[in-house]
Amino acid sequence: MADTTGAKDPFIANLNKIYVGYTGGFAFFVVILGILEQMGVPDRIIGYLFVFLTIGVYAYIGIISRTQVASEYYVAGRRVPAIYNGMATGSDWMSAASFIGMAGSLYALGYGGLAFILGWTGGYMLVAILLAPYLRKFGQYTVPDFLGARFGGNWARAIGVVILITASFVYVVAQIVGVGIITQRFLEVSFTTAVFLGLAGILVCSMLGGMRAVTWTQVAQYIILIIAYLIPAILMSVKISGVPIPQLMYGLALERIEVLEAGFRAAGMVPPPGVTGWHTSPFVGANGQFSMNAAVNFFALIFCLMVGTAALPHVLMRYFTTPSVREARASVAWSLFFIFLLYFTAPAYAAFGKLEIYQTVIGQPIANLPEWIKNWQIISPYGTPWVNIVDVNRDGIVQWGDFRIHPDVVVLATPEIAGLPYVIAGLVAAGGLAAALSTADGLLLALANALSHDVYYKMINRDAPTARRLVISRLLLLIVAVAAAWTAGSMGADILFLVAWAFSIAAAGLFAALVMGVWYKKTTNAAACWGMAVGYLVTFFYLIWSEFFGLHFMETFATKEAILRAATATAALPLASAELKAYAAGLVANASAIQDGSLAWFGSLWAGSGLPTDHVVLRGRVVGRLWGLNNISGGVFGVPLSFLTIYLVSKFTTAPSQAMQNFVEDIRIPRGGVRLADRREAVD
Amino acid sequence: MPLVESGPEPESATSAAVDPAIARAYWKKTSNLMWTVLAIWFVAGFGVHFFAQTLNSIHIMGFPLGFYMAAQGSLIIFVVALFWFSKRQNEIDEEFGVQEDA
């Protein structure tokens, strides 16, 4: 592996030494802070030290990795060894949602939440076998570069850029919200201040050194985030089972949760809203019985997350940085391994947290609850307290359904729940920050590179000198970052649900064109453009229509009974506009006049199998669900449509030229260079 | 801004000449490996979980097996399969002599 990694560079040659030293230094730092805490240094100072020192390290790496060379800026000089690229991809991939949110989702959803675990890991199988080695062989700078070269120029490139921007922008905003949530809690500043502090942390890493700086920062961030995730889980495991292997021991916790749940039910209690009462049972509805709808949504979500993973440009572009095709393949395996370390721990986190709460909080008098609950009864950016006790029957006792915890704080609050020292809480905060910052870095770079390299250089000014391109790239990075921070600061947590859409949009827009471009030689330019456009537009409009115009969606696809139910729900929404409520109330008042929707036959195709088109009330809106599918899985319609469009249009358009077919053949074989179908696409 | 670029035909000298027959045989074997791994992906990602309810009646160290497969089992299969794929594909590259120059 070492023979192709450019032994001349002393930094690359000493990577192991540098990062082992760094890890030791970080461990030493944590121990020192632990000692300081014992000596009576206030919690707040510990929090400040964690946040500022880790960001300081990232900034330092960013500054020493600054570069003026295009290939260093865009693809880190293609010298990143497989293992290190695996770590960088791990932190590039694992976002605030993975670090802070996933264990919380598992806490709330039980088995249903495992769709996220499966979807966000299995996607790497698709990356490794279908795409990464071939994109590496193609050997340019961005994903739209490949689309432009393979599918005849600027139409394909432009469509690729639009999809990339749509998917990545909502994603980066969510990371900045995540940074805001953590800094707000640990530095005790306002959310907006926290957002802009986070922005500064992101920019110092990516502005000066582009991909090179982001790569080496991401490796450093991976080390911190995995330590910060594993240590509290190990300590919880020791506390509950006496053995420091949480991944093996939480089976015992699951068993006890099942017993406790059965006990709560026998006592006539119900779980709080949004939390399953059957933690380990697959595909159950609220009544604990098998639900076809739950099963179909589980598999649809896995599918969308997997395909989305394999189509998100900030992930794919990481495999442009390895020294060879061979290392690109190995690198995907390493990426998955490093991601796996966190993901197979998350269910343990959720189980231990749930057991602790069920044993020490439920059934206690509200008057003598543990201290940590008070610390987290602060208002979240969602508008409700992070942890809330709602005494439904006013008996002064915390019932099962009385304890409300927002999924996002399960990980952040675990150290306090388990009564661990504050230094562990600070460590977790530093880990969450590393996860959010590293993903934001990767996304910002993907966005800025698409705009500067694909739009400015390839489409507007082909003669721009390198220095000018890099200046433009940095300027665009700054603009995109400020726009994202502004969006995050003004919309807050209300837009976090859009992240899930990014997967469906990328999956439906890009996946088919990328895969067919490599694996189906007869894919024509027109076919790829149509395939991307159809997949993207269908998914995008489906999401917008079902989410924001739910009642209208139902009036189109649902039966008259379902429309009446949706109208009744709309009229009762607290936050809907007055016109919408008046319109819905009008429908309800004149219920006998409601007709089946014009496409109700389509919406009822699977009604016989228990999958009618219905609605759910979510995020203060009535959201339509075609065939009962949650719109988080909107890509299940777009992905097959995109493949079908590409295949059919390819059949009816002139086959690609011999030069193009040669180009595809070159991409498929690791040895040798790539004959470019259009030489002007060549890298200078 | 030209929407379709028409550059001159490229020279083919940059490419290492791989005999078309070898390239076809190589691609056939690579495709077979791709379908094999895709099958593993489908079974571990979806197939076993169709039976989650049935598997849950088996308990190992407290874990209901159906839950365990979705939480850890399939993930372990994914990781192992990818390292195996990477090794297997290298062997195919070398068998046809199309690996990169070291």
- Global mean pLDDT of chain B: 84
The number of strands of chain B is 2
Shape summary of chain B: elongated
Name the poorly predicted regions of chain B: 1-15
| β-sheet strand percentage of chain A | under 5%
Overview of the molecule:
- The complex is a heterodimer of chains A (684) and B (102).
- Chain A has 684 residues and is an all-alpha fold.
- Chain A has 28 helices and four strands.
- The radius of gyration of chain A is 26 Å and the shape is globular.
- Chain A starts with 9 loop residues before the first helix and ends in a 16-residue tail after the last helix.
- Chain B has helices at 20-45, 52-55, 65-95; strands at residues 59-60, 63-64.
- In chain B, helix 1 (20-45) runs antiparallel to helix 3.
- The longest helix of chain B has 31 residues, at 65-95.
- By secondary structure, chain B is mostly helical.
- Classes of the chains: A mainly alpha (684), B mainly alpha (102).
- Chains A and B meet through helix 7, helix 12, helix 13, helix 15 and helix 28 of A and helix 1, strand 1, strand 2 and helix 3 of B.
